[in-house]
Amino acid sequence: MYTPQTLILAATLLITADCATPNVSLVVPPAVKISDTATLDCKLEPFKGTLHEVKWFKDGTIIFQYKPAEVPPGQSFNVPGINLDLDKSNSSRIVLSNVCPNASGLYGCEISTKEPFFRSTLHTAFMFVVDVPEEPPTVKYRQVNANIRAECASPPSNPPINITWVVNEGKTYRGSDTHISTHINATRNHPQVTLSILELFYRDAYKYGMAHVRCVAKLFDLYHKEAEFVAFDVETFTLPGQKKLVVYPASKEPVPLEKHFVIYFLLVVVVVGALYGYVWYKS
Ligand SMILES: *[C@@H]1O[C@H](CO)[C@@H](O)[C@H](O)[C@H]1NC(C)=O
Ligand SMILES: *[C@@H]1O[C@H](CO)[C@@H](O)[C@H](O)[C@H]1NC(C)=O
Ligand SMILES: *[C@@H]1O[C@H](CO)[C@@H](O)[C@H](O)[C@H]1NC(C)=O
Ligand SMILES: *[C@@H]1O[C@H](CO)[C@@H](O)[C@H](O)[C@H]1NC(C)=O
Ligand SMILES: *[C@@H]1O[C@H](CO)[C@@H](O)[C@H](O)[C@H]1NC(C)=O
């Protein structure tokens, strides 16, 4: 009834079902500096069977293939702007050396195995080659009474730099009292300036009558520079050490000192009473 052939077929089907969906792990650095080396990894997890072929693509064009059955197994294809380091590339990795701006693009890999047969779909990820600017962002501001309008402009870059604002190290920052708008000119694949405008409308932003405002500019983990200023509010400004240390938000009145006294007094009465009761109970 069960011939060896049917058994082998059944076993193969079982193994195939077991391995029908191995995961492709593709790791592409999101950004690299011009002239640096980029390492891109692609492998099956878990890996079962015999590797048949790995193919790498950039923007849909094949740049590298690895076939263990061929000599040499690794072969690169001449694509302008791509310097693939054949010696350092293997079945699970490609190394691009001295990257230039036009190496930016969508990288993808495809893996197939035999025994059992498996062919992955194309997995892709984008890599930016960035000309990292040297200059910090520039900030200028205008103040009318306690209201501040600040503009922060990043140096041009592709992709554009991310700008975030920090007011008094975030301690008195209230989102609802501020307005932030960011503008980037829509010219693709061209270095662009990010312009961010911060508007602070209330005194809550001030601590001791001062607002310390930082514009934080970041580009992946390749660039992190800041510009800052301190604005003063003449009506609430106090030197540290002076009495008027806390600026109360307009909406909230400070708790009168008398109320604190009443609460402390009641607390003391309760604690002393409890202690008294305990001592009396023990004796
Ligand atoms: C593939 O990844 C998914 C989600 O990350 C996970 O649930 C699954 O177990 C993985 N499959 C294998 C064969 O590792
Ligand atoms: C990519 O840039 C390099 C050097 O900057 C240049 O030699 C090459 O022609 C460019 N390739 C394409 C496709 O633009
Ligand atoms: C490919 O090369 C890298 C670096 O030399 C190494 O860590 C990795 O194990 C290699 N992969 C295979 C499948 O041999
Ligand atoms: C965007 O472009 C316009 C016109 O080209 C220019 O006036 C404006 O200053 C630019 N904005 C930024 C943030 O570069
Ligand atoms: C900007 O910030 C977003 C969100 O944190 C992040 O996903 C993106 O990669 C950043 N872009 C750059 C160019 O740093």
TrEMBL record:
Keyword annotations from UniProtKB, A to Z: Membrane, Signal, Transmembrane, Transmembrane helix
Signal peptide boundaries: 1-19
Boundaries of every Ig-like domain copy: 22-112
Transmembrane portions of the chain: 261-281
Coiled coil start-end: none
UniProt xrefs under Gene3D superfamilies: Immunoglobulins
InterPro entries: Ig-like_dom, Ig-like_dom_sf, Ig-like_fold
PROSITE patterns the UniProt entry points to: IG_LIKE
Protein name (Swiss-Prot/TrEMBL): Ig-like domain-containing protein
Organism: Zophobas morio
